[in-house]
């Protein structure tokens, strides 16, 4: 894969299975250079393979499909090139989609009521005078913000305290009826405010300063569950809890007000209305102890009572949306050794793995005994299949356009063993040809995250350019148990550094086509941290790339959106502990030519982290460059504008061409200069 082929990279959403069990709908989106945005539509995929999939919408960006429980209506989010996502509905058999919201800041998530007549949705509500609520008052002319809380902004969103996410319930209009018309002239004057627009009114359910997320109806339709941090002292921890509010409006109540601090993520009532499933991380007594905490699946009676943990919290990390399955069960995802499994649980603790390694499950939707599943694997960024009698039958080929133009290289899975006997698991993606190939040791972010064996555009682009790409999950990563993830708490840059070097040495022995004299190192976020730490101790690398790095825990505290708690939990809270694990503290030992990449709107690892690291390298005479992206945040490499994502790849390959040339990537090939 080449950088210019990004528009061929389709991403597939979680599926929406039709209640009649004949088909599922997914959103298929892709980067588009002409629009410099992500575009996509909805596709209907029959479970009968004799009937081909077909595109059923023509919006600019249509996402998040969901059928009404009776199967008559399909709801989804549609965004225009300049607008925010709004909730739309269309008859399930086809027709003209109708917008049913006009939220100033758009709609982020929604869920159907059991009666198929109502939808609950979440939308950020801006304070008066902010975000365009007053004509002629732009962002630079707004009133100042008086900040008194720890939690007031978030990467990708900016300030959040002045636009909390609230919940609304809206009645879905009858789609078969004659469409409403906006009165004009005398008729409009006579009707006054009633003639404001075509969308039906929505009833706001929640209020206050907290974000209200993950809404879902109870099975009787009388209540709405949601997740929020409404407890006393919520600004001093990162805990959140389950709440319930009457669907017609009223006072919200906490379902587990006396529970130990947890970060709740998803809530789902069983089909029989007897059980409430939810996922949550335990956070210790202070509500901040999040390091390497696996997310667990719990169940409790809807009528109230004790919550029981269903998953193995030491070895399973549960994520994604919960999907009711059967009478008293649920489907959930589990991150495991570089894959994401689909697992079924029942309220009594019964469990079965439905989809396992090597696939990476994206989402699932159940209808009776059928389960529609979207997933990625080594050869595809996302496909849809249906699970029948224990087998996943693949129904789509959304990767065909990319595969027709580019060779997709299979990753080689292997495990290296260090001098302390610890196994380090990961993959190598090798270019075509006998070699010797220069090597890129890549390090993922997190640190409590994982590389997987699924298709990864970064590895494919670098391998196409002639580099052998190494990806491993050192201690500190997710997917291998809490002990593995927690091994670097208050000792970052120790066993994690040892593990990535172990993996590099193991790969050089396992794959003779790799050139052990031509090695580069790169990583983003925590990967940027560990790259900067390694080159402060090891001088074997020809060059390095440090991207959006966590580079100085001392200045990170207070400047990052999570800086008030993150560094203290990972490195320890004292200045001495922070400095002992800080790449800035060892920057004077760096001799490796280093490209620093950062985004100007990065609130997770603020741009000062990269700027100060670059300045320190320059001050001591190390060859260095700083690549800054305007308008982008911490997610540049994953969801930045397509134009910037292509430029990022081009600049990275130019850097490697200069310092680590390959047969397919040299200064002459790329047009690079040595200036």
Automatic annotation (TrEMBL):
Query: What PANTHER family does this protein's entry cite?
Result: DIPEPTIDYL PEPTIDASE FAMILY MEMBER 6, SERINE PEPTIDASE S9 FAMILY MEMBER
What are the protein's UniProt keywords? Hydrolase, Protease, Serine protease
Q: Provide the Peptidase S9 prolyl oligopeptidase catalytic domain boundaries.
A: 455-660
Q: Does the keyword Cell membrane apply?
A: no
Query: NADP as a keyword?
Result: no
Xref: InterPro entries: 6-blade_b-propeller_TolB-like (IPR011042), AB_hydrolase_fold (IPR029058), Peptidase_S9_cat (IPR001375), WD40 (IPR011659)
What protein name does the entry list? S9 family peptidase
Q: Which organism is it from?
A: Arthrobacter ramosus
Where on the tree of life does the source sit, at the highest rank?
A: Bacteria
